[in-house]
Amino acid sequence: MALRAIQEALSVPHQRPRPDRATRRRMRRRVRVAGLAIDPMTEGEVVDHVVETLKRGDGGHLVTPNVDISWAASRDPEVRKIIEGADLVVADGMPLVWAAKLLGTPLPGRVAGADLIWSLTEAATFYRYPIYLLGGPPGVAGAAADRLIDRYPGLLVAGTDTPPYGFEASPESCQEVRDAVVAAGPRLVFVGLGFPKQDRLIAMLRKDLPGTWFVGCGSAISFAAGAVRRAPTWMQRAGLEWFFRLLNEPGRLARRYLLHDLPFALWLLTACLFRRLFS
To answer: Measured between alpha carbons, how far is 156 from 184 in angstroms, rounded to an integer?
Structure first.
């Protein structure tokens, strides 16, 4: 099953309607790995792109796929469609960076959502773009906002919100979340509800705020608040951040990492190596 998923992920994607000229230029630069089209950009280039589009009054949707998201995309066409519809897709996972290198189409490096929440917020502070934090356990979004303000005095925080567990199943709760974000009028929204829940919500919110950038950031809000510890830098660079998180949250992450993500990563790297050697 895992091998078939990898083979499908490495195959040529289905034909899609011809995009406009600007989109074609961007797509030509994209690197295909694990069945996903990834933008070969550094963290600084991502920040520059977001700022430039905000200056024009345009927004967007940023996805940072890791191994877990790539595994889900290999099994669910709807999940893959969400990623394909994003404006920016950058690799938040060292196995994806390694796989791209094995395929001979290297990426400049990993761009983690947990890092982007700081660098994008720094840019938002400089340009006076208000931000909004949506997600995390109760109280965490507010704590993250406080820590961001401490680091970047003058930051405009349009609001924070922690929707209750299962809110997406209630039309009334979804509408409350939507109304709160729209009323706040942010230009940059970090949505940390887990993929693909956060990205489905982003798709709904973008209709109301076309000039706002939405960043699906997973646990980045909890990291920024200090509620969850990040791995040491050397473990991040070595691709072992997943192992650090597993040691700290075994009950929540053991099944995901050991039964899904680790086998997928091994099959992905093996498939890319064989493709490099025999193509």
So the answer is: 11
